[in-house]
Input
Amino acid sequence: VAGQAQLLPGTLDLLILRAVSLGPLHGYGILLRIGQISGNALLIEQGALYPGLFRLVRQGLLKANWGTSENNRRAKFYELTAAGRKRLREETDNWNRLVTAIAAALAAQPS
Amino acid sequence: MKLLDSLRFRIATLFQRSQMNAELDEELRSHIQHRADDLERSGLARLEAERRARIEFGGQLRYKEECREAAGGTLVESLIQDARFALRLLRKSPGFALVGIISMGLGIGLTTNVYSSKWAMLFRELPAAANAKHLVMFQESADGDLAPVSYYYIEQYREQKSLFAGVAAFETGIPFNVTFQSDLNAKPERVFGQLVSPDYFSVLGVQPQLGRMLSPEVDKPGDAPVVVISDRFWRHRLNSSPNALGQILRLNGQIATIVGITPRNFNGALGIKPSELFVPITAPAALAPELANDVLHQRNAKEFLAMMCLAPGVTMDSAEAGLDAITRRLDEQDPLSPVRIDKGRRVTLLPAGTSVPIPRKLKPALIGFFVALMGLIITLACMNLANMLMARGANRRKELAIRLAVGASRFRLVRQMVSEGIVLSLLGGVAGFALAYVLGVLNAHFTAPMTVPVEFNFSLDWSAAAFAFGLAIVCGIGLSLAPALQATKADLTPALKEGSALQLPGYRRIGLRNLLMVAQVAASLMLLLMTGFLVIGISKASSIGTKFDPNTMYLFSLDPVRDGYAPEKAQALFEKLPERLKTAGLVRSIALAAQPPFTSEVEPTQLSAEGSPGSSQVLRPVLEEIVGAGYFATLSEPLLAGREFEEPDQRSRADASKALPAVLNESAARGFFGDGNALGKRVRDDKRSYEVVGVVRDMKDVQGFSQSIIYLPLTSRDFARPPAGGMTILARSEAGTDALSGIRNEITFIDPNLNIFNMQTLGAYLDRSRSALRFSVQTYGGIGVFGLVLAAIGLAGVTAYAVAQRRREIAIRTALGASRVQVLGLVLREGAALVSVGTVLGFLGAMGLAKIVSALANMFVDALKIGTNDPRLLVGAPVLLAAVAMLSCYVPARRSAQLDPLKALREE
Output
């Protein structure tokens, strides 16, 4: 597992929203998608995903429906709501600003 | 809206709980299956793939819990869950649960009892009286005795429209002999009521339930007599008859028409003495002897209580100032008024909107007293439980440390332990409420007989229930929070490593636990001593020394005036009655009195010695009892000096110019005249002077107190206006003969319409009077013993805990060669130190408390004086407590000495 980074607190929600924004996914699918889009660079304990999902549903950012997976198993599929889509945009902007600022700070050379 | 939505969501999730749990299970299973599918595809066998998937997933239980929490609705659900868990824990240790429930139950029960019988009664507003907040009355002195005034004064006060919205006059505790028109042959019933001015109800702000209340516009002097009945009278005596209005009652032989029914629960002003009839003072005097002699127009007839309703915006202080000025002017105009040189206010007011008016000055003290009393009781109970919980929490340290280590939040654990405390104390609350109910019933049962029935409202209402359970919850939180915080404060590593012996290094410091222990020993000893003082004191003081068998004396009462007799005819009856009964051979000796013998109901009056130099001129409170000829002979009390009253004294007309004869008891004689001869000397009150003709031994009253008493002769005035209890007749007969039926027959023979009431032997009367006292003595005793048991259980628990903590240390000592006695001594030393400090503090505390209580409540002075001088108690109680305490240390300590060192060390 070398080369994997610990998640920063609070970033799991953002990752979930991002993963789901590409289309409805069940929980395991979300994990795979995050792995895929992050180049397997992030370490997420599998079970830890679910409390996050429940939280997002409760906040009305995701909605869930039961369906059948590609493996022909029953699974609960999550997709973004309008509020979720909006939140994803805001959070992405926030994140970018933060990263730029911190990167700039770290890159600054003593003049 | 958002709040409402979230609330609805939470409620919905609560009900969809089981469905949600099933879905959650399915979702996680699905996740694991998908993962297993992937692993299988990479070449693993199905079983191995599923196993690996489960391991990768992590702790399912924990994530499920987090999911449930994230989904909301957790508050109610987890509270229920906590409560269920707490119940399960308690069921596992029934001994702990039982002791806890009993101790909380007792604490809450006693506190609720104090609350419902005292607090609520003292501070509850008059039911159905809209003006309750604005009502005021006169008080005579700072301690809240009500001051009667003449009707003339009330009329003058009524003119002060700027001060008062209304001023009503009333007299309470007035007996009426009532016969119902429908039943002419029935014996009349004696019912207590009030004489009220017609504006009484409008001043109180009371609206009728049916019919009309009295009013000055409608009810004029000379009208046909009317009466307003209370809701209780209507329900109990008229069976809630729909035809009650317009029905005719015979009151004291005169007819009166029912015009209205008061609202439910309204028993008149000063509701502690419930009134069932309200007769206007405009009624003819034949209806009530209290109205005789044109009492409304006698300026010196101070017979009426004034009930005043303050005008809007007027404060009690400004009303008091205004009234004071008017009263001074009125007093000066009045030639008969005694000259008073007073600097202070002549008039003081007190709020009157409760069933017992409480002077403003007294109110903070009363509140303080009851809060302190209730606080002390509940603290003692809580302290015990807190002790036990703390020992338990410490024993569970290892369990708690493990739970903390696997990720339970501290908040969650504390909440869990606190809910255990709440469940325990709520169960205690149920037990306590039941106890309060039983106490209420017993209290009502053991109420001493009174001339005018006094009604303490012992019934528990919703406010008492709210009080009890609110108290239970607060106590539950309070007493479990500290132990819970302490137990979960753990540094994880040592707690896991050393198990429960974690506290070892700091053990000998004065911990919270040791403080609690000392406090508990001290408090239980205080309780034991205080209750012991009262038990011994009261039971010693209350033995009345009659010089004859009290079952050979008969008491009964007659009230001929209220049976329709004219005053002269009543007096004639009483003059010939003793002779007739004696001649008929029914009684050996007989005497009349205006109150039952040994009564404790008489209010003191202020008297001073007259004239002679060297004697005390100070006003001193003396009880005034009015007795007839031969009273002391009938009681077999020879006079110590002088003579007792004779027939001629009884005939003397009450006339201010001539001194009435009087008999003093020893205390009174000594108080007025020192050790010198009191015969022939005079004492006086604000109306007349009395010449001492005899001195008699001090006799204790039914409560066991002996006070200064002046005995005055019956006069024609007493016959014309009999006291509320009627005239009491004391008759002695030979032992073994039942004279009662003979007396009844003889009186019926004289006049079949005479109503005989309160007929009983002196023995039965004394028994009933003392049953309340006996009951309270037994209650006190019970409380004291219970405190002792609580302390013992608490000590045993704490010692057991201390021993458990020191298992390793003890095992090492034993392995190194310490003998059993040495080990025992080691453990007992701790206990002995705590017990002796607690005992000393408790002893000092009890002595101090006894001093304070006797200073505050003079009814306990005698009892406490006897009690605090009783060596059995002073030595016995501390020794008993210390012995019980040491025994309860010894039992768990012995177990420690039997410890097998190898086993103990291996276990750790």
User: Anything to note?
Assistant: The mean pLDDT of chain A is 86.
